[in-house]
Design a protein that fits this description.
It comes from Streptomyces hokutonensis. By secondary structure, the protein is α/β, with parallel strands linked by helices. The chain is 29% helix and 16% strand.
Length: 500
């Protein structure tokens, strides 16, 4: 029964919020966790929210972070963030079985989107299935994206050479501190928190694992298709990116940029993408910055020592991560010579040897598929295996998986690409009806895989161990036995994670 008309109030550290009962859950949307990052707070670290008087209506999601948007969405997901958009976007959503004192395990989900798109409000990431099926409290968060979250300003552009960057990361820290201080009132346990994310969201979880103010505030991390393999720019390199952006917008300094309406800031993105879109590389026009304060090391290193070693990790990837690029016209007629030239950028005079190895690995592979496999390994798969191997060598718990199920969409050309595991993990295919990526995936073939993954994630969130009755035995990844669960219509485990 849907009883969404009945309200429920909870006291937070900022004031009272009123949510709604929906299908057996208490749901709160659009709850502020930090001050609106507008005016003089634009391009500043997240600040505490000043609070409010009375009762805040938390029955409707807040605006999503400003981002590029086109009617009809993108050709694969059909859209990853929808209006309304606004700079005043630092809000979160909560799903809980009851706002009581049950101290349930908590999942904080961070959406991905290449650092420029996505929202906690899209149906893809609704927390109802996890809350209901796992007796969990689920939190999804919005954070600053694109230029508003990732630009770095040194003295050359009106900022300071010593101030921290990564405003997006300060948003995450503020959200995590909000959860620490408030989640008990929503029926959650602040001593049993898992952060989960996919792609850029998984990168966020990694960054939090390396952050001194955050890495003791959660206990487990689910890292789905983490883009570990993107080298991060330092301060000087980030300022070059900022200079490009300022040139496109038509201003010269941070002070001037603070006066530009956010709608105009978003209009600069097509040209930013065009300048960053180099053949054979995943287009990421803006990245986190190695500012030496909020982030001092690349992502792989952030989860391999210090307090991060005390965080249990479930890590994985899809079998054909980069195949999303296969639908782009620029890769339709990929030639062997093009791929050899791209391989030479990474492997120098060993490019032909590398190409031959990829051909042998996937008999009958076209040049396009060789390129996609190379990009998958370089940016996501190989670094993830490195993380699993190194943590295992240090005796830390780590569980590894690979998602092998191929989508029939696009005539099967995508196979098992980046992001396809999400509707299985959330077990919410009904929320993906607008996504071309999942066209043709029907019951009952998907149902067993949904149960296998969804329940494994629930088990890990609750106990730190993903095993459950509907899944073959899933051993920890160790030096002696690098066990990797291969999720498909029939899921099996392997000790050869690199084999196709």
């Amino acid at each position: 029964m849907n009883d969404s008309t009945a309200g429920i109030q909870v006291a937070t550290t900022s004031g009272l919020v009123r949510g709604a009962h929906q299908d057996g859950l208490a749901v709160f949307k659009g709850v502020p966790f930090a001050a609106p990052p507008v005016g003089e707070l634009r391009w500043r670290p997240a600040q505490p929210h000043p609070g409010w008087d009375g009762v805040l209506d938390a029955t409707v999601a807040g605006p999503s972070a400003p981002q590029p948007y086109a009617e009809g969405g993108d050709p694969v997901l059909g859209g990853h963030g929808f209006p309304p958009f606004d700079e005043d976007c630092l809000t979160l959503n909560v799903w809980t079985p009851a706002a009581d004192n049950a101290a349930r395990p908590v999942l904080i989900w961070i959406h991905g989107g290449g650092f420029v798109s996505g929202s906690a409000n899209v149906p893809f990431y609704a927390g109802d299935t996890f809350a209901r099926d796992g007796d969990l409290v689920v939190v999804t968060i919005n954070y600053r994206l694109g230029a508003l979250g990732f630009l770095y300003f040194g003295s050359e552009h009106g900022g300071s050479d010593t101030e921290p960057g990564n405003y997006w990361l300060t948003d995450h820290v503020a959200a995590l501190q909000w959860v620490r201080d408030n989640i008990a009132a929503f029926g959650g346990d602040p001593a049993n928190i898992t952060i989960g994310g996919q792609s850029g969201g998984a990168y966020s979880a990694v960054a939090l694992a390396g952050h001194s103010q955050a890495n003791t505030l959660f206990h487990r991390a689910i890292l789905q298709s983490t883009p570990f393999g993107f080298p991060l720019p330092d301060r000087a390199e980030s300022q070059q990116i900022t200079a490009t952006y300022l040139d496109i917008v038509g201003v010269k300094s941070l002070d001037e940029l603070r006066q530009v309406p956010w709608t105009h800031l978003i209009e600069a993105w097509p040209e930013m993408f065009e300048r960053a879109n180099k053949w054979g590389h995943l287009p990421v026009p803006i990245k986190p910055v190695l500012d030496g304060v909020t982030m001092a090391r690349d992502a792989v290193e952030l989860v391999l020592d210090g307090a991060a070693l005390d965080i249990d990790i479930l890590i994985g990837w899809t079998r054909e991560e980069a195949n999303l690029l296969a639908v782009f016209p620029m890769y339709a007629d990929t030639t062997r010579e093009q791929v050899l030239a791209r391989a030479a950028e990474s492997f120098g005079d060993k490019a032909a040897e590398v190409y031959a190895a990829y051909e042998a690995r996937r008999p009958g592979a076209t040049p396009q598929q060789v390129l996609m496999d190379l990009l998958s390994d370089e940016r996501i798969v190989a670094p993830a295996i490195e993380v699993a191997e190194t943590r295992a060598a240090r005796g830390r718990p780590v569980w590894a998986y690979r998602f092998d199920y191929p989508t029939p969409a696009f005539d099967g050309r995508l196979a098992a690409p980046h992001g396809l595991e999400l509707p299985f993990v959330f077990d919410n295919f009904g929320n993906w009806s607008h996504a071309p990526l999942v066209e043709g995936i029907e019951s009952p073939s998907r149902d067993g895989l949904c149960t296998a993954m969804h329940q494994a994630w629930i088990s890990f969130i609750r106990t730190g161990d993903p095993n459950h009755a509907q899944l073959p035995k899933w051993e920890r990844y160790t030096e002696e036995r690098p066990t990797t669960m291969r999720f498909d219509t029939v899921s099996t485990s392997t000790e050869r994670p690199r084999e196709l």
